[in-house]
User: What shape does this take?
Amino acid sequence: MLKKIISGGKAGADRAALDVAIRFGIPHGGWISKDNRKDDVGLPDKYQLEEMLTKSRSSAIAHNVLQSDGTLIISRGPLEGDITLARQLAVHHGRPWLHININKTFISDSIKILEGLHTRWIVLLKSLSEDDLKKEFIHPDYSKRISLGVNISLYAWHSNHHLEHIKQALRYRGVFQ
Assistant: This one.
């Protein structure tokens, strides 16, 4: 179970992780180098990051890697710069780490995952009764009561919408009109 998200707060995946933590009420934090909040335009105070006494970005990275149970690195291409240091520190200190190079992630693999997930959803959904579909809950995004049947319809539309985006990307290979 995820106990806490630790991040250095840099733009991109670091901030996305903090935003997810805030959105879902997951404890979060991390370390940033001295004056980083001032240097990194737009680093909001909502991120519960501690400022170190040193201006060394390497020290902040080391602190974040060593304070966490594992390190997730997301990149577009090979590791370089500060990110290489995070991997080296995780390896050196025997900490689990995972590198996802999104340039090597194939869209067709994502489609297979979605198709498999939807196949399992079908089995579950076919087991629901009419009474089950009428049951209501407070939707976390809309803060209003919604029936399970309506929510399933919204999910189906939303999923198909994403699937069409992926198929379009495959057809046009990034050349959109």
Summary: The first helix runs from residue 13 to 24. The CA atoms of residues 168 and 177 lie 11 Å apart. The chain has two domains: 5-104, 107-172. Helices lie at 13-24, 36-39, 57-67, 82-92, 107-126, 130-134, 148-172.
